[in-house]
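Write out this protein's structure.
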Amino acid sequence: MSALALLAGAFVVGFEQLTQWKYGPVGIAGLLLLALGFHRSSPAYSSAGALVLTLLVVGGAAA
């Protein structure tokens, strides 16, 4: 396993933990939709995930 792959995996796991800590289960669902959309090359899934994450970030700033 290359060091770059290990570093990328650690970054993804860290980002997922940060998202779960800050935004809860809805943030994880948005991140999952976004990743699923990129993996399947589906604009519908990636757009839904991006929309969920955007609404969480904007809603948190307004409150």
